Write the structure tokens for this entry.
Amino acid sequence: MKIDDITKNTLDKLNAMPAEELIKWAFDNFGDRAAIGTSFQLTGTVIIDLASKHFRKFRVFTIDTLRLHQETYDAIKASEKKYGLAVERFTPDEGTLKRMVDRFGEYLFFTDKAKQEYCCFVRKVEPNKRALKTLDVWITGLRKDQSDYRKTVPKASLVEEDGRKILKLAPLAEWSMEKIWRYIKENNLPYNKLFDKGYDSIGCIICSTPLVKGGPPRSGRWRWFHEEDDKKECGIHTNTVRE
């Protein structure tokens, strides 16, 4: 199948599929032009396991900002060992990263929202763009209950990236955190142990912190910006245009 074959009717069918069926469909129809993109949050852990029920080999990629928690690197290694994976790692461009740090300093993200977004672009968005150039189907861990900003995320949509269409899937869009934890525990899956320490959303080591009791799921991100907006996004999921 080719991306140009994806019609509105196809999208309607995909949005009606349960998670495991949707993941199987993606790899059946696109092979190594489909990939699971994950930062090894709990959702990514579940998606990898669902894919492993049908395929021995499938693509998984992650964005290594070079500032991840050790627990995140441990989770990557644990998944590679369990499933026999070789997780593809995309890192920031060395020259661009050096110029940013030389100009604004190592901790520019504390200054203001614009510099935080610039840091995220250099460390996360640009490497993700390079990853997307290698695929036609991008399988993500987005869920509706993660924030108001994400509450309308569909299971399947066509997005535009650098002038071409990509099928973006969120198989667990309608899963609750309770369902995700239940699946992980029942299937004894490896997972990022920061989730046992009060974290709900995990990114770079400085920019993600444990939740304050009662806070919204992504409130641990860039805590120094308080709750000035509910967006709390690095840019990976805001720099594509959905049809």
Remarks:
- The chain has one domain: 3-242.
